[in-house]
Write a structure and sequence with these properties.
Elements lengths: L2 H9 L2 H4 E3 L6 E3 L19 E4 L5 H13 L8 E5 L4 H12 L16 E7 L5 E4 L9 E6 L3 E7 L4 H5 L3 H5 L7 E5 L4 E4 L2 H4 L1 E5 L4 E4 L2 E4 L3 E7 L7
Antiparallel strand pairs: 1-2, 3-10, 4-5, 5-14, 6-11, 7-10, 7-14, 8-9, 8-11, 12-13
Helix pairs in contact: 1-3, 1-4
Bound molecules: 2-oxoglutaric acid.
Length: 236
Amino acid sequence: MDCQQDWQTLFGSDDEDYDMDTTTTATTLTRSKEFVDIQVETIEQIPGLRLWRNALDHTQQIALIQAITDHNIFGQGNQAMRFGQLGPELENLATWIYDHHLLPSHLSHRVPLFDQAIYNFYNKGEGIISHVDLAKFDDGIVILSLLSSCCMTMKPTTNPQQAIHQGYLQQQEQELDERSIDIILRPGDVLMLSGPSRYLWEHGIAERDIDLVGEEIIVRGTRISVTLRKLLPIDS
Ligand SMILES: O=C(O)CCC(=O)C(=O)O
C-alpha cells in the first residue's frame, strides 16, 4: 500500500491543510474547510476532560499504524519523541483535531497547535505511572489510542503545585474527590485533557493483562498511544 497516498486520501493533503511558514519551524493552520462539530464524552467530576470516541475510524488507524511501522518510529525502544515539525501523519492528525473543535476555544488557535509528540508502545500488560504532565507543556494535551483497549485511571493529584501555579486555587481549597475514575480507552479514541483535568488530575495505566471496568472486561493486547502537546516558551 502507498501509505502516504492513503493517509492523504483519508485526511487531506498537507498542501490544502497548511501554509508552511518557512522562516520558523511553526506550521500555520489556514484551514479553509468548515469546522465539523463532534459528540464528545465528558465526566462531571473531571472538568476539562473530553473523550472523542472513534475519532479515527478503522481505516485511518490502520494507515497511521502502517506509517509508524514504515518509518520505524520506535526503533529498538518502546517510546519515541518528536519536537517541532511532527511529520505529515501527526500534522494531519493535528488538523483533524483542529477541524473538529476538540480543544477549548482559547487554545484552538495557537500556532502551532502541537509541537511535541510522544509515541508509546505498550506490550500486553504494561502501563504508565500515574502522573500530571510536566509544567513545560501548555494546557490542552491530546492522547490517541491505537491497537488495543485499556483502562486509564484518573485520580486527583497529590502534588497540586502546578495547579496552584496555574491559578486553580479554588479547586485546591475545595475538598478533592478522593475516588479515582476509570476510563476505557479504545482504539481510535482521542482523549483531550485541559484545565482541571490536565492540572488537578493525574492519569495513569496500571500494569495488568485484564481490566475490569464496571461490567466490562478488557483483555489487553499490544497498544500504541500518540500524545500531542505544545511546549511553552522557556521563560514562561
Ligand atoms: O499511553 C497513554 O494513553 C498515556 C500516555 C501518557 O500519559 C504520556 O505519554 O505522558
